[in-house]
Design brief:
Strand content: 5-15%
Radius of gyration: 38 Å
Largest sheet: 5 strands, antiparallel
Structural class: alpha+beta
Order of helices and strands: HHHHHHHEEEEHEEHEEH
Distance between the termini: 148 Å
Strand order of the largest sheet: 4-3-2-1-5
Number of helices: 10
Number of strands: 8
């Protein structure tokens, strides 16, 4: 220190060197005071939020505020410390390039921590909505929608952080935004079909005509269970266990029948013809009895038998019944058909073959 003081005295004179050291010591003391103040502020903020913030959060019904506090308190306290270091460095009499480098690094760290704070809060909110609200059946967003919202929020925060950082270092933001806009337009024109599928996927997630696990009937008559709803396509597992991958735009632009919503009860139909000599009321009683004795046929709505038409060789009867599990409709129909033919034989009800009467006239 004495050697440094002697060099300064030889270079600028004794009075100037003493003034420089006093100024440097004062600025260093100011920097330490600034850093110490923000360090104490971070400790105070952490103590207040941990002690009183959690007490206030305990009065709410949900746990979302507790989870947000748990994720954000450490980030907030560290951010205050970094902010203090950034302001302290800017007040110190360092070399211009060294001060610019250190303060720039601290500024970038501060921006990253700030936007990370926002992302952690949004991430906890999305997780709470996904697991807590869906468990109670009050969810507004599906699982895929939550994942997409998280990705959009993350990309938005990353973009905003880059803009703030580049603006701090005096980069031309307008030219960057213009380049990104032109690039996005070019990509949109080149991938318009993919974007159409993605927009349709977003529509499916918002409108929710079906959800994962629902059994649906497509416009071409195929039936399957929805196993995944993606941004570009939807995967449907058919009754033959094959997986159909259908672009979302095709689903949005066609008629889709949801077989399990608003209720999972599905209607089954059995058409049977009986001879003209049969007692129609007795036939109805037998069909209703067969349907009522099947444990998989629901009681609400009750099975219904209709005399639909006079056929060429039979009276056509229609049995309507409802099953709670769409996947069991084929099995229940098979069971009812076997029971119907057995009961008809036991009660002498004839199921006639088609009959054609041919009359031959001889010319005289």
């Amino acid at each position: 220190m004495s050697e440094l003081l002697s060099i300064l005295q030889n270079f600028v004179g004794p009075q100037a060197s003493d003034g420089f050291l006093r100024l440097w010591a004062k600025e260093l003391l100011d920097a330490l005071l600034i850093f110490g103040f923000f360090w104490l502020l971070s400790e105070l903020a952490g103590w207040v939020l941990n002690r009183w913030g959690r007490r206030l959060a305990a009065f709410t019904v949900t746990e979302i505020d507790d989870r947000i506090l748990t994720r954000t308190i450490p980030n907030l306290t560290r951010m205050l410390v970094v902010l203090g270091a950034y302001l302290a460095i800017r007040s110190m009499p360092l070399h211009e390039k060294l001060a610019a480098f250190v303060s720039g690094a601290l500024f970038v760290t501060l921006v990253i921590m700030l936007f990370s704070l926002f992302y952690n809060a949004v991430d906890e909110l999305m997780k709470w909505h996904l697991y807590e609200r869906q468990a109670s059946g009050k969810s507004v967003l599906s699982r895929q929608m939550v994942q997409m919202v998280e990705k959009v929020v993350m990309l938005f925060l990353i973009g905003m952080a880059l803009i703030v950082i580049l603006k701090h270092f005096n980069y031309d933001i307008f030219s960057l935004v213009t380049a990104l806009g032109i690039g996005s337009l070019a990509i949109g024109m080149a991938a318009k079909d993919t974007l159409a599928h993605m927009i349709s996927g977003f529509t499916l997630m918002v409108d929710r005509p079906f959800e994962i696990g629902d059994r649906i009937k497509l416009n071409n008559g195929q039936i399957g269970d929805v196993i995944d709803i993606g941004l570009r396509s939807t995967k449907i597992k058919g009754l033959d266990t094959t997986v159909m991958i259908i672009p979302n735009s095709d689903l949005c632009n066609s008629t889709v029948i949801n077989m399990v919503r608003p209720t999972a009860v599905i209607q089954g139909r059995i058409t049977v013809g009986v001879s003209y000599d049969s007692d129609v009321e007795r036939v109805k009683e037998l069909l209703l009895d067969v349907a009522g004795n099947n444990p998989e046929v629901v009681e609400d709505p009750l099975p219904l038998v209709l005399f639909t038409s006079f056929g060429d060789s039979a009276l056509n009867m229609l049995l309507l019944f409802w099953v709670s599990d769409p996947g069991r409709l084929g099995i229940v129909t098979d069971s009812l058909n076997c029971a119907i033919i057995r009961r008809f034989r036991e009660n002498g009800i004839e199921i006639p073959f088609p009959i054609r009467t041919v009359r031959m006239e001889r010319e005289c």
